[in-house]
Amino acid sequence: MIIPLFVIPLRDLPPKFSVQLAGATGLDAPAPHDGAAAPISTAFNFTLHAANRRQGDRCYRRGEAVVRYSGYTIASGRTRAFCVGGKEARDVPVVAWADGVGLPMSVRERVAADWRAGAVELEVDVRLFRGDDGSARPTRVSCKVTAGEAKPPSVTPCKVFALQGWASDFAPAWINAVIS
Question: What is the pTM of this model?
Fold first, then answer.
């Protein structure tokens, strides 16, 4: 059987990631009446779900998480070291927080209004650092989640930016079947 050469780089399939937000606090702080940028304190609990599509283990020695609203960083945290076995999945709890984030008044009013409406659109970015191959190559995971009571917590797929097998997400199914 002849395997086309373009299949070879796809053997190292990147993991799939998703995020589920479990809780958020601090987004409903009242704005000051004098128009000053008063600080807010936020905390977010979420679960990073990692699914390894490779045969071998994939390990990360640490990670950094950032939560943003309209481009403003409103919380940050770290992930613990973890490994995901070959063709397995794992949930990693993450807590991100900030104490005293100053937001412009217009942004603060908008986030408070979104919270009262029950749906605050957030961006969650996670950088994971490899620990299994000695390269320390980062894998960047970018997700969009909604906090609030209008939508029940759901699992949101993330975009993965890493230096391996990126074409596997849009390659034809028969190619992925050949290399699995």
Answer: 0.80
